[in-house]
Design a protein that fits this description.
255 residues, 2 domains, 5-stranded mixed beta sheet, alpha/beta, D-Maltodextrin-Binding Protein, domain 2, 24% strand
């Protein structure tokens, strides 16, 4: 086997295990572009932790975790972004927005926690108490007035609350910019040849989103039109407007 590094058999990759990342996973696994890799599927916060601890070489990192990384290197032309309601990053509440007194926070993503704090303080002008949930607690969260939840669990949870606020939609309404939830970053320089193949693999999966339900038959949330969600609610190209939105968000969380 031809090694990409003289000291490394495999390039280790951490990707998010949610439906919105399945096009990336599909491309990595089936495009035929990538051979010498080890793919790991994690929740967003773990992706960032693994990259920070050098447990992997590149990862799909929540944008909110970028300030914690030492000299991260962008490696892809694609991201997990939204140019409209994203449907899977939500504030769920039993009371209207301006009556909220406490919000329970999903453990799985630091970015969404930071986003809701920015929205609350800068745009909604509310000052709720924040309750941090542990791993897995958001899925079975009961008795909370309001809950911030992310990922595939939201498709079911949203049915249980009368008030649903889409965090990406709220950001776009107040800033007129797209929101970026996660970007591909490396913690060391990687060979240019590998990066070209990696981008081709991601593109392969994105243009073949129609094949996702067949490839992941047991991982599609019940009752969800997965193709519609991937095509209409997730925006994958890491273009200049998304970079502008990401820069604004990073500025706001540093304040």
């Amino acid at each position: 086997m031809l090694l990409l590094f003289p000291y490394m058999d495999l390039i280790k990759i951490s990707a998010v295990s949610y439906l919105n990342t399945f096009p990336f996973v599909f491309g990595i696994k089936t495009s035929g572009e990538l051979d010498d890799i080890e793919l790991q599927l994690d929740i967003p916060s773990v992706c960032a932790e693994k990259l920070r601890n050098n447990e992997v070489d590149l990862a799909l990192v929540p944008v909110g975790a970028i300030p914690e990384l030492d000299d991260p290197i962008p490696v892809a032309d694609y991201c997990i972004g939204a140019e409209r309601d994203v449907k899977s990053v939500l504030l769920l509440s039993h009371v209207p927005l301006h009556e909220i007194r406490e919000i329970a926070l999903d453990f799985d993503s630091k970015t969404s926690v930071q986003l809701i704090r920015v929205l609350a303080g800068k745009f909604w002008k509310i000052n709720p108490k924040w309750r941090k949930l542990g791993s897995g607690e958001a899925e079975k969260a009961t008795g909370y007035e309001s809950l911030m939840a992310i990922g595939d669990k939201t498709f079911q949870l949203a049915r249980e609350y009368p008030y649903v606020y889409d965090l990406a939609g709220e950001w776009i309404q107040h800033t007129s910019l797209p929101f970026v939830f996660a970007v591909w970053l490396a913690n060391k320089p990687l060979p240019e040849g590998f990066l070209l193949k990696f981008n081709k693999a991601l593109e392969y999966g994105i243009v073949r989103k129609q094949e996702i339900p067949e490839f992941f038959p047991n991982k599609i949330p019940p009752g969800l039109d997965a193709i519609k969600y991937l095509e209409e609610n997730i925006s994958y190209n890491f273009d200049e407007r998304k970079k502008e939105g990401m820069a604004l968000f990073l500025d706001l969380i540093r304040e």
